[in-house]
C-alpha cells in the first residue's frame, strides 16, 4: 500500500523509475550489509563456543644419533 502511494507520488514528480531504482538499490545494499554483519557475528560466536582454543602441541624432540 505504502509502496503504491510512494510510486504514484514519484510518477507525478517525474523520473520516478530512476528515483525508485536508486531507493530500492540502496535498501538492498543496506539489507545485504546488515545480513553479512549478523552472519559474521553469529559465526564467530558459534566457533568460539564449539571450538575452544586448544593448547599448541609441542612435537617430541628428535634425538640425534
Mean pLDDT: 76
Cα distance spanning the termini? 85 Å
- Major sheet summary line: none
Helix-strand pattern: HH
| Beta-strand content | under 5%
> What portion of residues is helical?
over 70%
Number of helices: 2
Radius of gyration: 27 Å
Beta strand count: 0
Low-confidence stretches: none
Query: Structural class, please?
Result: mainly alpha
Oligomer: single chain
Describe the global form.
rod-shaped
What report would you give on this structure?
- The protein has 65 residues and is mainly alpha-helical.
- The protein has a domain of 38 residues.
- It is 72% helix and 0% strand.
- The protein is built from two helices and no strands.
- Helix 1 crosses helix 2.
- The longest helix has 35 residues.
Quick take:
The protein has 2 helices and no strands. With 65 residues, the chain is mainly α.
SSE layout and pairings?
Layout: H1 2-13, H2 16-50
Keywords:
mainly alpha, 65 residues, rod-shaped, 2 helices
Amino acid at each position: 500500500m505504502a509502496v503504491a502511494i510512494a510510486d504514484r507520488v514519484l510518477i507525478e514528480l517525474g523520473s520516478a523509475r530512476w528515483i525508485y531504482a536508486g531507493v530500492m538499490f540502496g535498501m538492498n545494499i543496506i539489507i545485504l550489509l546488515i545480513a553479512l554483519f549478523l552472519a559474521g557475528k553469529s559465526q564467530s560466536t558459534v566457533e568460539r563456543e564449539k571450538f575452544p582454543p586448544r593448547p599448541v602441541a609441542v612435537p617430541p624432540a628428535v634425538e640425534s644419533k
